[in-house]
Amino acid sequence: MKVIIVENYEEASQEAAKIFINQVKEKPNSILGLATGSTPVRMYELLREDHEKNHTSYKDVKSYNLDEYFGLDASHPQSYHYFMYKNLFNGIDIKDENVHVPCGQGNIQENCDEYNKMLAENPIDIQLLGIGSNGHIGFNEPGTDFNSKTHYVDLKESTIKDNARLFFNGDEDAVPKQAISMGIQNIMDAKSVVLIACGKNKEDAVKGMIEGPVTPELPASVLQNHKDVTVIIDKAAAALLEKEY
Question: Could you tell me which residue ranges the Glucosamine/galactosamine-6-phosphate isomerase domain spans (predicted)?
């Protein structure tokens, strides 16, 4: 696990953007695993700026998102499908048919099975992750089996609270109670992983992920077993780490 400690969120976003831009330049038909939430917003902005300025092309890139709320139409402003177009896809030249986000409507189990099939046929080159304050990656909450594939989950109260604060104007009742998420095995199958974490509220999760035991009670700790992981954290998120990085 390569750990990069930077001053702040801006620097973390710049480091992550560099990695993804280089990936696409070196392999124009890369398969990208993408994430939503507040963490990657600035990184996506940097990718859009680079595309406009330097013409890095995504026309042969495929993308697969980690997760999606269940019960929201793709056009709903809080759906992750909508988020991805607003924050990234509308500003780059990726083809609509190459964009994949789990379907948040219809038969939830069939949607999971179909997504797993696509992932099996399209191995991800580089997977972007954030980390929840309880150590979740994607919507793989504490206790999720490390062998899990794309599945539907009942969201924990802490995750609903976090998402209400960030995206639903504090209204916990507006946050869907279920989501579809890549499983931990799907994430571990990616050839490389980049995780960004910033802020004091992530310090406990970051400490457990990097220096704690590998346990399903802190899902991100499984990344210690991956052969190519880069963790980019600011000083606030790194505050509890005991080793030198």
Answer: 12-229
